[in-house]
TrEMBL record:
Transmembrane segments: none annotated. This is Exoribonuclease-2. PANTHER family: DIS3-LIKE EXONUCLEASE 2, RIBONUCLEASE. The keyword Coiled coil applies. SUPFAM superfamilies: Nucleic acid-binding proteins. GO terms for cellular component: P-body. Gene3D superfamilies: Nucleic acid-binding proteins (2.40.50.140), Winged helix-like DNA-binding domain superfamily/Winged helix DNA-binding domain (1.10.10.10). One of its GO terms (biological process) is mRNA catabolic process. Signal peptide: none annotated. It comes from Thermus arciformis.
Length: 599
């Protein structure tokens, strides 16, 4: 490179003029911009003088390749062979030939002429690429027309993977001008007549859909109080597969004695064991209309589910409660129990449950007097049985209240014990609602639910205003909820005189489990809505709705038979809690939305 003479170089793939200035190069780029760079940042083409008005001459590329096949030469030698001269234009032309990579390929500052075999392989690869592109365009045409062929299956699998959230992009949807979102992929598959019943939501949220496959240890040998002489009833919805609590109450002097027996899961699942770590990873059982995905291996439920065997191991909460519903004393211990399983309907006719009914009413009245909120909106159970979707309203049996109050008492007693004994514990807390709603009926409950603050799980005690309790912890579902299991692990450590988890360890588990539990709840909600919309599409619907909110000319109705809310245009003014008949119009399955109209 001559001082004061502009040489021709390549910088970031573009031609530039370079002049030396104090060990660096000053470049003149296309368009006239100036830039200083290091010599190693450019590829030298010609010492100049040169300009950027480069008109590459006609050359003999093929003849040069035949002479050089398999050899490596400089850019200057290639320019002279192809163009018969070494000019800036010829040097740039040689660079472009090498950059194109057909017969020549740039290697460092030299150029290698490909071998004949390489050239044939490149041509074959290009032929295959063109063939793939042709096949892709033909497949796109079929997909646009809604008539996919068997050979289009790999492309459809790519769209399905996006719909399930297993990939982030789809060349197929991009080529069709559609958004590359899971919802758009789902809608596209539905238009093609595919995925009519596929529920993508749990996979989309990254949740495992198979039970854990881990060995389950035998029940350890330890002292247990034999309570098999006392009645015990596991009361649940029909078809429940994981009975993890049972109850019995009797009248005693001054009030009641309540037994709440809970599956002794911590006996088989100690902290930091493989089973414990897997349960933490899952957070909770995943209840889908298609079936349940447990957080623990099924063998744990088989061994510990109350009433699944003639005698079951349990962790028993024995509570003494006053006539006014005041907790007087609690004991917690491992036990053997003999449990009878009942549905909520069957429980209504069991005379032995009358004391439980009276105790539940006393404790419920005490909670309500302390500010507890009672919100009872219609609920349904959605199940997929074979090819049929079934929606079953859950009747508000009084026995549901009996069981609920017993479980709340056990949680209150466990939290009270944990505070008294200085145990780190996963406490449940809730601040007072943003406002108290006056009024009656479903509309008032709907409005009150909107004013609720989210319940939180903490490693320090705090009031649960929604329940009207100064302390509370969930302890009655360790087969189904990970933090209930943590509570049991802490109680067992205390009972056995072992070191319990520290507050920081409990807090770490609370944070991790709650993050996963949020995903589980979202998957359950969306899956339930997915199958409800499919039910409506397949069977249609006309039935009662209750007006719970007015929004301008629109009304929000609750449909008790479907456990669904719908926003509907109101042709005339209706009072809140008014009942009307609604007819299903259509559903948008990917968006999880349904349209109804007043009959």
């Amino acid at each position: 490179m001559l001082r004061g003479v502009a040489a021709l170089v390549v910088y970031k793939g573009k031609p530039a003029l370079a002049e030396e200035q104090g060990g660096r190069l000053e470049l003149t780029l296309e368009g006239g911009a100036k830039q200083k760079v290091r010599p190693k940042d450019v590829l030298f083409l010609h010492p100049g003088p040169a300009s950027l008005d480069l008109k590459v001459p006609e050359g003999e590329e093929e003849a040069a390749w035949e002479l050089l096949e398999g050899q490596t030469v400089s850019l200057r030698e290639l320019a002279e062979l192809v163009y018969g001269a070494y000019t800036p234009e010829a040097a740039y032309g040689a660079y472009l030939l090498a950059q194109r990579g057909e017969r020549f390929v740039l290697e460092g500052e030299g150029v290698r002429a490909r071998t004949r075999e390489e050239l044939l392989a490149l041509k074959e690869a290009e032929r295959k690429r063109l063939e793939r592109e042709r096949a892709f365009q033909e497949a796109l045409k079929r997909l646009k027309e809604g008539s996919p062929a068997p050979e289009d299956r790999p492309l459809l699998a790519e769209v399905e993977a996006l719909a399930r959230g297993e990939r982030k992009e789809s060349p197929v949807l991009r080529a069709l001008g559609l958004p590359e979102t899971p919802e758009a992929a789902h809608a596209f598959l539905l238009r093609l007549g595919l995925w009519q019943r596929e529920n993508p939501h749990p996979r989309r949220l990254g949740l495992p859909l198979q039970p854990p496959d881990l060995p389950v240890p035998p029940l350890p040998e330890e002292d247990r109080v034999d309570l098999t002489h006392l009645p015990a009833f596991a009361i649940d919805d029909e078809g429940s597969q994981d009975p993890d609590d049972a109850v019995f109450a009797e009248r005693v002097e001054g009030g009641f004695r309540l037994f709440v027996h809970v599956a002794d899961v911590a006996a088989l699942v100690p902290p930091k064991s493989p089973l414990d770590e897997e349960a933490l990873r899952r957070g909770a059982n995943l209840y889908l209309p298609e079936g349940t995905v447990p957080m623990l291996p099924p063998a744990v439920t088989e061994a510990l589910g109350l009433g699944l065997r003639e005698v079951s191991p349990a962790l028993t909460f024995e509570l003494w409660v006053s006539e006014e519903g005041e907790l007087l004393e609690e004991r917690v211990y491992p036990s053997w129990v003999q449990v009878k399983r009942l549905t909520y309907r069957e429980a209504l006719g069991v005379e032995a449950l009358r004391p439980l009914e009276a105790l539940a009413e006393a404790f419920r009245a005490k909670r309500l007097a302390a500010g507890a909120l009672e919100i009872a909106l219609p609920e349904v159970k959605v199940r997929v049985e074979g090819e049929e979707v079934r929606i079953t309203p859950l009747p508000p049996y009084p026995s549901r209240v009996w069981v609920r109050e017993a479980m709340l008492l056990a949680g209150y007693a466990a939290a009270h014990l944990a505070v008294r004994e200085g145990l780190a514990f996963p406490f449940a807390a809730q601040e007072a609602p943003a406002r108290r709603v006056e009024g009656e009926g479903l509309a008032a409950m709907w409005e009150q639910r909107k004013a609720l603050r989210r319940a939180q799980l903490k490693a320090v005690p705090a009031p649960h205003k929604g329940l009207g309790l100064p302390l509370y912890a969930q302890v009655t579902s360790p087969l189904r909820r990970y933090l209930d299991l943590v509570a049991h692990q802490q109680l067992r450590a205390w009972l056995k005189g072992e070191r319990p988890l520290s507050q920081s360890e409990v807090l770490e588990r609370v944070g991790a489990a709650e993050a996963v539990a949020d995903l589980v709840r979202e998957a359950e909600r969306k899956s339930k809505l997915h199958w409800t919309l499919l039910y409506l599409q397949e069977k249609g619907y006309e039935g009662p709705g209750v007006l719970v909110e007015r929004r301008g000319g629109q009304g929000v109705f609750l449909l008790p038979e479907l456990g669904l809310s719908a926003q509907v245009a109101l042709p005339q003014a209706l009072p809140l809690n008014a009942e009307a008949r609604l007819r299903f119009l259509e559903a948008d399955l990917p968006a999880l939305e349904a349209r109804f109209a007043l009959v």
